[in-house]
Write a structure and sequence with these properties.
four-stranded antiparallel beta sheet, 2 domains, about 375 residues, Pdz3 Domain, alpha+beta, about 55% helix
């Protein structure tokens, strides 16, 4: 049996990218915690499952390496996170120092440190991308992505999705604007189309149309370069902010769709959502998607790192207990009410949040496996 490293390498690179982004997130928590004097007894690289290697101990923190090298974590017991003091004592082999009480604003900064670092990391990576290859932009192409109807002139003439329209009559076609002008110029005339079909090369089609070809064109990715370094920063800032906002809106819509789906299944009088959850990708789908693109274009590693870093920030910002946003929601209540929510309420809320997150993970993983197995 021949083992092909090129098949597994993109998957390993994908997992490495995800791990780096999670470690960047945890490092944001770590630096904010150290700045304000929080205890950080353990910083782990990898998931805390199975054996670990003690790397070194600095700044009151034991840095550990876990063999399940996916992600990372930092224990901050004074933040009121999920770290169990007895478990920490067993892992460290020593008692923790007496826990201090910190103001709400300091705990909020520590809780949001990971989110801030993911956004900052994406911003810096975007500057590097713009300075080296340029800013990615979707430009209308001459490739057919679909048809306006089953009886469109192009479909009836035998054109299929994926065909590239190279020429109409004597007019060269490279984008949608040129296609529209050429189509209008040859309306109600018999015209020759030259197309390029994958694996078949150039093909000539003759047809006549009254309204138009009835095709939907796709987009190609182009990279716009900027000579001025100041523009690298401003364009990177605009791209990072706009992408973060659009991602946040999309995730909110997805969560409302998910909740609506559950309620509609329980209560018949609630209308089910129009949006389907079947195309939502989970971690398996993300790795598979990254792997496919890495094979075709190494620049995609940087692009996916930027998008995944922003996505990680968006997810953690959501006010769901067990996420950073959940901690911030509890702290907002404490700042307004003057006291923390009861421990019982927080425990129930965190369990409900974990159940909600696990439900989403199960649905997305099911979608990934279904698409992977059945295409």
């Amino acid at each position: 049996m021949h083992f092909d490293l090129t098949q597994i390498l993109p998957v390993l690179v994908s997992i490495a990218v995800i791990t780096v982004l999670i470690i960047v997130h945890e490092f944001g928590h770590f630096l904010a915690a150290k700045y304000f004097g929080f205890q950080t007894p353990i910083f782990g690289i990898g998931l805390p499952i199975g054996p670990a290697i003690n790397l070194f101990k600095r700044w009151g923190t034991q840095f550990k390496f876990y063999f399940l090298l996916i992600g990372g974590f930092v224990s901050i017991p004074e933040l009121g996170d999920e770290s169990n003091q007895e478990e920490l004592k067993q892992q460290l082999g020593e008692e923790l120092k007496p826990l201090k009480t910190f103001p709400v604003y300091q705990r909020a900064i520590v809780a949001s440190g990971g989110i801030a670092f993911n956004i900052l990391f994406a911003f810096l990576l975007t500057i590097v991308m713009i300075a080296t290859v340029g800013l990615p932009q979707a430009v209308p192409a001459n490739t057919i992505a679909g048809f306006t109807s089953e009886t469109s002139a192009a479909r009836l003439a035998g054109l299929v999705e994926g065909d590239r329209i190279l020429r109409i009559g004597s007019t060269q076609i490279t984008n949608g604007s040129e296609l529209k002008l050429a189509v209008d110029a040859h309306r109600d005339q018999q015209v020759t189309l030259v197309i390029e079909r994958p694996k078949q090369g150039q093909i000539t089609k003759t047809l006549q149309y009254k309204e138009g070809l009835g095709v939907l064109l796709g987009h190609e990715k182009h990279y716009q370069k900027f000579a001025n370094p100041i523009l690298w920063v401003t364009e990177a800032f605009t791209f990072t902010v706009s992408t973060f906002v659009s991602m946040f809106i999309s995730v909110i819509i997805l969560l409302f769709t998910f909740v609506n789906k559950i309620l509609a299944a329980i209560f018949p009088f609630i209308s089910p959502p129009v949006t389907e959850l079947g195309e939502v990708k989970g971690i398996v789908g993300i790795v598979q998607l990254i792997s496919q693109d890495i094979k075709s274009n190494a620049v995609m590693i940087m692009e996916f790192a930027i998008l995944l870093s922003l996505n990680l920030a968006v997810i953690n910002l959501l006010p769901i207990p067990a996420l950073d946003g959940g901690h911030l929601a509890f702290m907002t209540y404490e700042a307004i009410a003057g006291s923390k929510p009861s421990e019982k309420f927080q425990a129930i809320a965190i369990q409900a949040g974990l159940l909600f997150i696990l439900s989403i993970m199960l649905i997305t993983t099911f979608n990934d496996i279904r698409h992977w197995v059945f295409g």
